[in-house]
Structure formats: structure tokens, C-alpha cells
Amino acid sequence: MAHPTQLGFQDAASPVMEELLHFHDHALMIVFLISTLVLYIIIAMVSTKLTNKYILDSQEIEIVWTILPAVILVLIALPSLRILYLMDEINDPHLTIKAMGHQWYWSYEYTDYENLGFDSYMVPTQDLAPGHFRLLETDHRMVVPMESPVRVLVSAEDVLHSWAVPSLGVKMDAVPGRLNQTAFIASRPGVFYGQCSEICGANHSFMPIVVEAVPLEHFENWSSLMLEDA
């Protein structure tokens, strides 16, 4: 859960998000080192009156400042491509959920069950229970088992939406007439918040996403109760 004055990302709740955080730190350190070197060179050139004739015309330096950036780009590209393929990998999901975007709410359908689905609306401010977050809480949460691969099929009924949960490292566009898929594994129990990340109209800010990860036994009890109510 994000908090005021937060500078970094939310705590990772999935293996993919942990990889993304590590890559962010890796790339940021490279940017910091390059910025420090460039700043030092600028200050040195501005503040000194000496001129080095070997720097003015040196093939060795030109070779270095051509090869070194290429090596740095490779060091950034390789882990980036690795994470890209990890995010696209969906192997034998234990559960499949179809998330449909509407103006302005989400509907979820658990396709492995015969009749398990519901709409998820934002809870109005005046109806919030103590401890719930304004503009982020929903009347029905998307409940998933922890430590299990979950596939989410994302589409939209009317206009473009985007199903995004930052702490799970998931963001997928919901396009009318198109079925996109993404996957995640919740590595710990908890409640994870997200929002529609594609401007979709007047109430774009009022269609939150709440994913609740619970142990498998609790998920089975929840699904049984939902099927009985249906």
C-alpha cells in the first residue's frame, strides 16, 4: 500500500515485482554513476585553465567512449529482456479469472467454476468501514489463493481500461473486442490495491481494483460460500 511522501515503489508481493525492483535499483545505480562522471567532467573543464593536448586529439579516448556506452547498454538490456520474458510466461495456471472493464466498475468471472462471478464497485466515502481506504475499497474483492499461479484474462465492455495492481507487478490494457492475458503469483497473504490506469471517462478515478490473497483452504471456503449464495 502506498503512503504519503513515499519515494520508492510499493513492497513487492509477487516474484515478478521483486525482479522489477531489483532491475530498477540496478538501472538507477548505472544512471547515478554516469551522472556523477559527467558532472565531474563538466566541473573540471569549467574550473581549470589547463589544456591537455592528448585529450584534444586522442583515438584511444574516442574508442573508449564509443565502446563503454555500448557495454553499459548491454548490461541494462540483458536483465530487462529476462524480466520481459518472465512476465510473459504463463505455465499451468491453477486459477483463471476473467476481468471485464465497464464504465465505471470491474466484473470478475472465475472460469474454473460453473457459476462464480460478481461485479466490483467502489465503496462510497460515506459507506466506508473503519480502516478502509477512500477511493480504493470495493464492495467485492477479487480473492485469490496465495502461492498459486493465477491467470487473468482482461477485456472491456465499452471503452479502453487498464487492469493494474502495482504491488503484484501487473498492468494489462483492457480493450473492447480483444482478450489480453497476464499472470501473477501472490507470494504472501494480504490485500493489494490498484486502479484503472487508462483514462476511460468521467469516473475513471472511481473504479479501483482490490486483490485479496488468502491461503488455499480459506479460498476454498470463500468459493463454496459464493457458490451457495449464487
UniProtKB/TrEMBL annotation:
Membrane topology qualifier: Multi-pass membrane protein
Any one cellular-component term (Gene Ontology): mitochondrial inner membrane
Molecular function GO terms recorded: copper ion binding; cytochrome-c oxidase activity; oxidoreductase activity
Domain Cytochrome oxidase subunit II transmembrane region profile: 1-91
Catalysed transformations (reactions): 4 Fe(II)-[cytochrome c] + O2 + 8 H(+)(in) = 4 Fe(III)-[cytochrome c] + 2 H2O + 4 H(+)(out)
Domain Cytochrome oxidase subunit II copper A binding: residue ranges: 92-225
Cofactor(s) needed: Cu cation
Ligase recorded as keyword: no
Cofactor mode of binding and number, as noted: Binds a copper A center.
Pfam family, one: COX2_TM
Signal peptide extent: none
Transmembrane domains' residue ranges: 27-51, 63-85
One Gene Ontology term from the biological process aspect of the record: ATP synthesis coupled electron transport
Keyword annotations of the record: Copper, Electron transport, Magnesium, Membrane, Metal-binding, Mitochondrion, Mitochondrion inner membrane, Respiratory chain, Translocase, Transmembrane, Transmembrane helix, Transport
Predominant localisation class: mitochondrion
Localization in the cell: Mitochondrion inner membrane
Protein's UniProt keywords contain Magnesium: yes
Entry's family note: Belongs to the cytochrome c oxidase subunit 2 family.
Role summary: Component of the cytochrome c oxidase, the last enzyme in the mitochondrial electron transport chain which drives oxidative phosphorylation. The respiratory chain contains 3 multisubunit complexes succinate dehydrogenase (complex II, CII), ubiquinol-cytochrome c oxidoreductase (cytochrome b-c1 complex, complex III, CIII) and cytochrome c oxidase (complex IV, CIV), that cooperate to transfer electrons derived from NADH and succinate to molecular oxygen, creating an electrochemical gradient over the inner membrane that drives transmembrane transport and the ATP synthase.
Protein name from the UniProt record: Cytochrome c oxidase subunit 2
Lineage, broadest ranks: Eukaryota, Metazoa, Chordata, Craniata, Vertebrata
